[in-house]
Amino acid sequence: MTKGKRLVLKNATMRIELEVNSREALVNGVRVFMGEGTRMYRRSLRISRIDAERFIGPIAQPKFGNPTVPRLRVIALDAGHGGRDPGKEHKKLRVNEKTFTLDVVRRLERLLEAQGYRVILTRKGDTYVELGDRPAAAARAGADLFISVHFNAVGSNVERVSGSETYTMTPQYQRSASETRRDSMDAIANPGNVNDRWNSIIGYHMQRSMLNNLKTSDRGLKHGRLAVLRLARCPAVLVEAGFLSNTAEARKIATPAYRQQVTQAPAGGVEAYVGA
Description:
Radius of gyration: 18 Å
Strand order of the largest sheet: 10-7-11-14-12-13
Largest sheet: 6 strands, mixed
Strand content: 15-25%
Oligomer: single chain
């Protein structure tokens, strides 16, 4: 098998597609990015042990390596940016990320409370909150799940790049999605790594729910050592629901009706996570 060749594993409910020498895979049609690329060994295609035990395996079989199922009673919602930090902006449309993330989080708060969850917010207004203080607030409240809401942007080809992506904490000894080579940070164990397996499960269901609800292009489930994920002491996920740098997508995000759709996506992800 050479690069470009694919291996498909499937049963009645799951289809996993792997490509030779690639970090990208498809799980039930959702793009996921592993920490290491696949390798050929004795005429069989292999993935790394960490990807098998902490990423692909738990997504395929949620209790894989998870003897204890975590409770889900308290959910922490984190509206990205705020105060002196506007986040991503579309200057011509005069819109910014901090306003939209807070609006989506407020809407999501109402949805989740109606489902019986206790919800805490890392910020309730247009205030600046240090990155480390966000997962710390979740820990003080005894949160069982941390969801950070963001909108994206790029600096070039702005009208060609759109879609949704989801981040979970990079497992120890692996590379983040943006890294092409190993780094000294890879070997460090962080608080967020305690929940690697459950991070993978919530991340997969969150990305799948965003694609189903928003019908955006799939930019994938990715790993990243982002501060709010690195320091989270419960399963945690960061969603980038769309690109404010893309004018067409920014115009949609600027409408309350579309932001309500954005809200339905993480709500659906939580529901699927509970089902898993």
